[in-house]
């Protein structure tokens, strides 16, 4: 079994919501990734989504695309990402790590080889953006056989049929994409997110995480009223690129701390704490 069910059950019993930052492996530097991961966990992250660099990240906006290009320029490949997970596991054996990427690197490595290597390194879940649920039954089954949770995306445009297909395959958690289009784009309609998340949760016992468009503590808290997890990606990459590379871990940790404080604060304190995250 992966670490994800244990992590979400612990949070549920505590009455808390999961904070899941995304970073691109190898950005801003090859050697900074593990440092950033540890800094985020120390600041309050409950799980980490680690992006596997790819040359055509079709679902990602320009910020994450730049991070992918930067990592690829440093020759960061799938096996390098797995080595980063392995290094992280030397001192953190409990925080779930989810790999997020695209099908091509997995197909080049071979799905079975990839899953075996990912599990050996300490991976808990995998999101393959361009694996449609209609064609992913074998991959999802193989992932679970390796104690890796296959995590799928749902969008505002997902039909009832697509929701059913995803829920029949998914484990770990379900990732609801709160915006139409690419990462980092558009306006977040929190009322619509609440309605859609409620509909998904009525059909599954899996935790539902919401990503795309969450940039600060106050938005994270609003989303967490209905979701089980908030996922922050584009804003994390902006923080990593906004300053010297050697300060990336400190910047990431400081921001995560403000979001964690906003998520955990009593209602009468949350607005003030969350507003601090907007200026991070």
DSSP summary, beta strand count:
9
SSE pattern = HEHEHHEHHEHEEHEHEHEHHH
According to CATH, the homologous superfamily is Aldolase class I
Provide the low-confidence segments as ranges: 181-185, 273-280
Helix content: 40-55%
What percent of residues are in strands?
A: 5-15%
Specify the structural class: alpha/beta
Shape: globular
Report the C-alpha radius of gyration, rounded.
17 Å
Write the layout of secondary structure elements.
Layout: H1 4-14, E1 18-24, H2 33-43, E2 48-51, H3 62-73, H4 78-89, E3 97-101, H5 103-109, H6 111-121, E4 125-128, H7 137-145, E5 149-151, E6 153-154, H8 160-169, E7 174-177, H9 190-201, E8 208-211, H10 217-224, E9 229-232, H11 234-241, H12 248-264, H13 267-278
Helix pairs in contact: 2-4, 2-12, 4-6, 5-6, 10-12, 10-13, 11-12, 12-13
Tell me what you see in this structure.
The protein is α/β, with parallel strands linked by helices and 280 residues long. It has a single domain (4-278), classed as TIM Barrel, CATH 3.20.20. 50% of the residues lie in helices and 13% in strands. It is built from 13 helices and nine strands. The chain has helices spanning 4-14, 33-43, 62-73, 78-89, 103-109, 111-121, 137-145, 160-169, 190-201, 217-224, 234-241, 248-264, 267-278, and strands spanning 18-24, 48-51, 97-101, 125-128, 149-151, 153-154, 174-177, 208-211, 229-232. A nine-stranded parallel beta sheet has the order 5-4-3-2-1-9-8-7-6. Helix 2 runs parallel beside helix 12 (248-264), helix 5 crosses helix 6 and helix 11 packs antiparallel against helix 12 (248-264). The N and C termini lie far apart (36 Å). Mean pLDDT is 92; it is low at 181-185 and 273-280.
